[in-house]
C-alpha cells in the first residue's frame, strides 16, 4: 500500500494523462494499482525504455482512429444494432491495429529491439473481411451505400423515379395555377410537398391543407393530383429505412462475432497509449530511466521533485539502506526538509509505475512493498484533533501496517507537544521502526535526535543547507551533517538588540554547550571535506582534459596517416593501370609478330597475368586501436558519439543516450570526449525528423487554425524523409478542414500535385498528395 495522496502522486498522473491520445488511457492511468510487485515494476520500466527508444528512432506510435467504443462493442455483443457512426468506428479501430503493426515492422527493419511492447501489437487481430463488409456498405460520410444490398438499390431507384415524377407534377401546377399562388415555390409541410396558395382560393384549390401562414394570407396545400405519388414515396421511404436497418443488423452481427477480438484490440492499443505517454513525458521533461534493484536500498543522485520548476529546483542526493537504515533530517523551517521526503517517496512511486524520473540515470531505486508517509501538520477539524494528535493518529496507523519491507517517511516527528516529551517519543518510535527492519527518513527540530543519531549505529544525521549570509535555504541535502536552527544568528542579522542576542547565546551555551560544540566541530570537518572534494574534482577535470587532448592529437595523426595511405593506394592503382595498358599493347604486338611456332596458350597466360595486375584494396591499418570499456568513441554507422559500456568477445556495447547498442569493432573509432565547462542536467536526445516521416497525417477533429502549423511540420518531415506520396486524412464533416488543407497545398513548395482519394483510399475524406 502506498500513500499516493500524501506524496502527491495523483498530480503526477494528471500530468502523464496529458500525453495520452484516448480517454480510455486516461482512465487506465487514474486507476493505477497500489500493490507492489518487483517483476511488474521491472516489466513496466522496460516497456517505457523500449517505447522511448522507438520514439527516438522512428517517432510516435500511430494511434489515430482509436475511438471510445467499448460500450458500443459490449452492446453489440449483447445483441444491439450499431448505427453507421459506430460501425465506422470499428473500421477506425481495425485501421489503427494495421498501422500499429506496420509501425512495429518498421522498428524491426531498423533493428530496434522492442520485444516487451511488441507483444501488445502481436495480440491485435485485424479481420479484414469485417472491414471490407463495413466499408462496402457504408460511405466515409456515414451514409449507407445504394449497392449495400439489391433490395436497397431497387427501393432507392424507385424512390428517385417517384420523386422526379412528383416534382414534375408540382412544376406543372406552378405554371398552370400561377394566378392562385402567392409565389412560384414548392415548400414542405409535415414532410409533404405543398404549394403556397392564396387564402381566398383555399376551398377551390383541390388538395389537403397542411398549414396556414401566420399572416393568414397563404394556405399550404398538397395538390390532390400529387397525393397518390406522395403516398407511394412515403411507402418506399419506409421500405428504405427497413432495408437500411436490415443492413445495419447484418453488419452488427458480423461485429458481434468479432466483439471479443475487437475489445482485446482496444485493450492492447490502450495499453500502448499509456506506455508511449510515459515515454513522451520522459522525453518532454528530460527525465531518465534509473536502475531498479530488488532490495531495500536506494541511492538517489541529482533527484528533483517532479512538480517543482525543473529549471530552479535544486537536486538532492540521498542514500539509505546500506550503512544505515534511518536518516534524521534537521534544520530550520522552509529549508526543504519536507520536499526531500516527498521527492524520495514520489520518485519511487513513479519508477514502480514504469515512469521515467528527474534523477541521474545511475541512481538506484529500491523495492518497497509499502511507502508510508505522515507529511504535513494539518489539524483534523472533523475529529477536533490537535496537530500532535493528528500526527499520532497517522503514526499509529503506520505502525500497524509496517513490515521489514516498508519505507517510512515522517515529517516533524514528535512536534506539537512539550519538546522533552516529543523528542523522547520520537526516539522510541524510531527505535521501534528500526527493530522492525523498515527503512526510515524523518525530519525534526529536536536537538536530542541529533545526539541520538550520533550515539547509535545504523542512523545518520542529515540537514538542508542554510546560507546565514542571505538568511535563505539553499535546499541542498547534506548527508552526515545535523542542521542548526540558526535562530539567534538570524535574529541578530535582522536587527535584534545586541544585548538580547548575547544573553541568548550565554543561555544556549549553559544549556547545550557540549552538543553545540560537537555539532560545530562536525560541521567544520564536513566543510573541510567538501572543500577537498571540490579540489579533487577540479584535478580530475584537468586530468580528463589532458587525456582528451592526447586523444585528439592521436586522432589527428590517424587521419593524416589514413590520407597518406589513401593517396598511396590511388597512386599505386594509377601506376598499375598504366602498366596493364602498356602490357596489353605489347602482347597485341607480340601476337601480330609471332610466327607459326609461337605457342598460343603461352600468349593467353601472359595476357591474363597482365590483366590481373591490381593493387590490394585492403591495406593493413597502421593504427589498430585497442578499445576498452569507458572509451569515448565515434559510431560510423549512426554518425553519433557514445561511451563503451561493455565488451563481449567481438561485440562492443555503446551507450548512445540512454541505451546500450551492439556494434562491431570496425564500426567504431576512438574519439576525444568533449570537455564539460559546466555540468548541466542532461537530456536524452537523438530525434531525427527524417525518421519520423509517416505516410499519412490525420487531421480529423482538428480546428481550421491548427491546419497550417500541422501541415508545415508534417511536409517538412516528408521532405527530409524523401517521401513521394502521402495522404492527408481530413474526413468529411463541414468541409472546412478539407478546404484549409487544399488551400495550403496550392502554395506549398513541396507539392507537385494532389487529388481526392479513390476507392479504398477514403474517397473525398482523404487528399492524396504527390511531392516533388
From TrEMBL:
Superkingdom of the source species: Bacteria
Coiled coil region boundaries: 505-596
Lineage: Bacteria, Bacillati, Mycoplasmatota, Mollicutes, Anaeroplasmatales
Top EC class for this record: hydrolase
Family named by the database record: Belongs to the DNA mismatch repair MutS family. MutS2 subfamily.
The UniProt record lists the keyword GTP-binding: no
Protein name: Endonuclease MutS2
Purpose: Endonuclease that is involved in the suppression of homologous recombination and thus may have a key role in the control of bacterial genetic diversity.
InterPro entries, alphabetized: DNA_mismatch_repair_MutS_C, DNA_mismatch_repair_MutS_core, DNA_mismatch_repair_MutS_sf, MutS, MutS2, P-loop_NTPase, Smr_dom, Smr_dom_sf
PROSITE patterns attached to this UniProt entry: DNA_MISMATCH_REPAIR_2 (PS00486), SMR (PS50828)
Record's keyword terms, sorted: ATP-binding, Coiled coil, DNA-binding, Endonuclease, Hydrolase, Nuclease, Nucleotide-binding, RNA-binding, rRNA-binding
Location of the Smr domain: 697-772
Pfam families cross-referenced by the UniProt entry: MutS_V (PF00488), Smr (PF01713)
Binding site for ATP: 331-338
SUPFAM superfamilies to which the protein is assigned, alphabetical: DNA repair protein MutS, domain III, P-loop containing nucleoside triphosphate hydrolases, SMR domain-like
Subunit structure of this chain's protein: Homodimer. Binds to stalled ribosomes, contacting rRNA.
Record gene name: mutS2
